[in-house]
Amino acid sequence: MKKVFVTGTTGLLGTNVLIKLLNDGYSVIALVRKKSSDMGTENENLTWVEGDLFTDISEHLKGVDCVIHIAAETRQNLLSYHDYRKINHEAVVHMFSQAVAADAKRFIFVSSANTLGYGSIQEPGNEKSPQKYPFTCSLYAKSKLEAEHFLLKNNKTTEVVIVNPSFMIGAYDQKPSSGRIIYWAWKKKVVFYPKGGKNFVHAEDAAIGIVNAIEKGKKGEKYLLAGENLKYKDFFKKINRITAQNPFMIPIPNTGLIVLGKIGDVLRALHIKTDLSSENMKALRIDNFYSNLKSVEELGIRYQSIDKAVEDAVAYFKIKERKL
């Protein structure tokens, strides 16, 4: 039985990865800030370890074959690059250094699709596409890309494999995180949508890609974990159909998003945290599309429809609401 050490197991992607690892028979050591009673069913092949991303975990890495590093700072309202770099780069260096010292065979780093260049529906971005604006100005994406560069530069005794998930939707989105986009349209009489689009992927498929990368991923390679390329309007229509609602759909003018971005820039200059910025509003106006061909061919992923991802997410949210 192979032993795997994983960070970030309480989030949307991490929970799906943990479930996949245990179902596939791996022995898992999961790093969490603090153990709690609602962390799920105990499993004889699962060990919880308390600590943060800068904790000395060397004793827990003995005999570990692979480290999967999922934990990241993903909030969009932080104001300085240091706020992202500490977690998304410095912590990665710390975790990787410990993995190397423990002679772990493989280090899988969960990055972001936005470190790679997006494309159009006819020519979607791939693993060789250089990063493009507005993500070249995204503090989050920049910090992830810096970590990628460090890992690939030091890809020697411990093999590095990088996975780049697109926008994930699915069950176990506890906060919710990316699943907030479903609430943008769900139970609304009027839905405002931007004119751009993005790639959506079922979180379960992203988890399968990460676990498959333990055996199938090639040293020093990047893999886009990407599902369907959809306009926001079409994505919201899926939510409407799946939840049996018929809201009035209104497009947001690009000029309106530009103005909102400028307002956000001013607020940020005044040290007020906000998700608004020119970069974030630009991201809503473009077609942020990617190809999954490499991960299909080399990692053996069979991607599910985004309808299924939305159905799973909505079902999970309904269960959570009933428990409240």
TrEMBL record:
It comes from Chryseobacterium daecheongense. Transmembrane segments: none annotated. Coiled coil: none annotated. Residues 4-225 form the NAD-dependent epimerase/dehydratase domain. Pfam families: Epimerase (PF01370). The lineage of its organism: Bacteria, Pseudomonadati, Bacteroidota, Flavobacteriia, Flavobacteriales. PANTHER family: NAD(P)-BINDING DOMAIN-CONTAINING PROTEIN-RELATED (PTHR48079:SF6), PROTEIN YEEZ (PTHR48079). GO terms for cellular component: cytoplasm. This is NAD-dependent epimerase/dehydratase family protein. GO terms for molecular function: aldehyde dehydrogenase (NAD+) activity.
